[in-house]
Design a protein that fits this description.
By secondary structure, the protein is an alpha/beta fold. The protein folds into 2 domains: 92 residues, 3-Layer(aba) Sandwich (D-Maltodextrin-Binding Protein, domain 2); 102 residues, Periplasmic binding protein-like II (D-Maltodextrin-Binding Protein, domain 2, 3-Layer(aba) Sandwich). Strands 1, 2, 3, 4, 5, 6, 7, 8 and 9 form a 9-stranded mixed β-sheet that branches. Strand 1, helix 1 and strand 2 form a beta-alpha-beta unit. It is elongated and about 50 Å long.
Length: 198
C-alpha cells in the first residue's frame, strides 16, 4: 500500500504504475491520496509501505530511508487577467505580494518553503485563499481570481497552449526533489519492486 499526495500523481506515479502493472499484472496496488503529513503518520503506524512526497535539497528523514526519484519545479502562474505580469523578466516577491495569491496551506511542504522565501526578502505572504490540494488553485486561476502557485508539470499543457502563463519570479527556490520514504524493516516485496522501478 502506497501513499501519495494527489498533486504528485500526475508528475510522480503514472508512468511507474503502468510499467509495474506490465511487469507484475497479478499484483494489486492500493494507493491512498492524502496530505503528506497524514501519509507520514500512516507510515509511522505501519499502515503504508511507502510515501511519495516532495523534499528540498535536504533529503534526510528521521527513522526512514529516502530514495530520490526525480526533480520537480514549482511556479507562479496566471490567466489573461494578469498576463502583463508574466511578460516581465523578473518579478520580485514584494511586487508579487501586492496581487491576489492562491497557494497551498501551511501544512504543505511547498507552502513552508514559499513562506521561507518570502521571509528572506522581508515580505509577508498573505494569500487571499489557501488550499489543501492544487486542483482548486488551478480552477480559480483559470477563472481569473488571482495568481496561483503549483507544480509546473501539472499545468504544462495549459502553459503550452497559452491558456495560462508562467510568471518569472527571481527570489524563490523553485526546484525540489520528488522522493520515496519507507522503512526497510516493514517493506513488502511488492512495494520493494515498485521502488526498484522508480
Amino acid at each position: 500500500m502506497s501513499g501519495c499526495n494527489p498533486s504528485l500523481f500526475q508528475v510522480g506515479l503514472y508512468p511507474y504504475i503502468a510499467k509495474y502493472h506490465q511487469m507484475y499484472p497479478g499484483i494489486k496496488i492500493h494507493i491512498i491520496s492524502k496530505p503528506a503529513s497524514d501519509l507520514v503518520k500512516m507510515l509511522e503506524n505501519h499502515e503504508l509501505d511507502m510515501v511519495i512526497r516532495k523534499f528540498g535539497m535536504e533529503t534526510s528523514f528521521k527513522n526512514f530511508s529516502v530514495k530520490i526519484a526525480s526533480q520537480i519545479t514549482h511556479c507562479f502562474f496566471c490567466n489573461e487577467t494578469y498576463k502583463d505580469l508574466s511578460l516581465k523578466k523578473d518579478v520580485s516577491l514584494k511586487e508579487l505580494s501586492t496581487y491576489p495569491l492562491l497557494v497551498l496551506n501551511t501544512s504543505s511542504y511547498e507552502r513552508r518553503a514559499l513562506d521561507n522565501d518570502f521571509k528572506k526578502q522581508n515580505v509577508k505572504l498573505e494569500p487571499i485563499m489557501d488550499f489543501t490540494y492544487h486542483a482548486p488553485i488551478l480552477y480559480l486561476v483559470k477563472l481569473g481570481y488571482g495568481i496561483g502557485y503549483t507544480l509546473k508539470e501539472t499545468i504544462q499543457k495549459e502553459l503550452d497552449n497559452h491558456e495560462l502563463f508562467q510568471i518569472s519570479v527571481n527570489q524563490i527556490s523553485s526546484m525540489h526533489n520528488l522522493g520515496i520514504v519507507y522503512n526497510t524493516k516493514y517493506l513488502s516485496i511488492a512495494a520493494s519492486k515498485l521502488i526498484s522501478i522508480i
